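Encode chain A's predicted structure.
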Amino acid sequence: MQKIKNILYYKGIGEVYYIRSTRARNLSIRINQRGEVRVTIPRLVSQNRAEAFFLSKHHWVLKRLNQLNIRDCSKTMPAGGESISIRGKEHILPVLRGDETMENVIWGVLRNEALRYLPGRVQYLSDINGFTFTGLRIRRMKTRWGSCSAKGSINLNSWLMMLPEDLSDYVILHELVHTRIHNHGERFWQELDGVTGGLSKQYRKELRNHQIMCFNQAPRDQ
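Encoded structure for chain A:
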């Protein structure tokens, strides 16, 4: 039997799930293809010891996550002079100069659009659903749509601007629910279902069909 004991946030890594298991004999770290990091804790091992174990493997975890992030976008990347559509608005991409890369240019365009839109949207969804969050950061992420720290600070991927509004709202609400419930247990999904009008499973399924940056790669879903 496994039970999520705690979720901690580490800079550069994101959320790490500490799971206590009655069957485990040793501390272990698992990272799945979506970038989720889980530390399994045997029954008699303390949380402090588990955290120390994880920190001792910090560089290995970063290396593994970086390997997951390596994606060749060259064949699907739009060229200078072409456009990308962001929420129905066409943005003409500039011709590259010097050491610029089109990937960096696109992330820059998305960040500007995200900074204009997402803070107000997060505040609105928080207010109408009675949530409280302690901070908001718009970030460039390749494996996560968003995350929430143990202190209720939310990180959102600027690539959310490439999603339909209902799906980006779902991601925002997912993280807002995490300000109250720091795990993915049954109570979490019940509350998320409540604030999404009973559509959380549908939105989660739809989100899997959307991609982050590389148009021929699958993203990490919520």
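Residues 215-222 have pLDDT under 50 and may be disordered.
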